Amino acid sequence: MAPTPATAPILFDRALLGARLARARREGPATFLLERATEDMADRLQAVSRSFSAAADVWTPGDGIAEVLRGRVASVDAIDFSEPESLGVPPESLDLAVSALAFQFVNDLPGVLAQIRRALKGDGLLLAAMLGGDTLTELRQSFAAAEAECEGGVSPRVAPFADLRDIGALLQRAGFALPVTDVDRVVVRYASAFALMADLRRMGATNVLRERRHTPTRRATMLRMAQIYGERFADSDGRIRATFDIVWLSGWAPHESQPKPLRPGSAKASLEAAVKQVKR
Question: What is the separation of C-alpha 272 from the centre of its chain, rounded to a whole number of angstroms?
Answer without folding.
Answer: 42
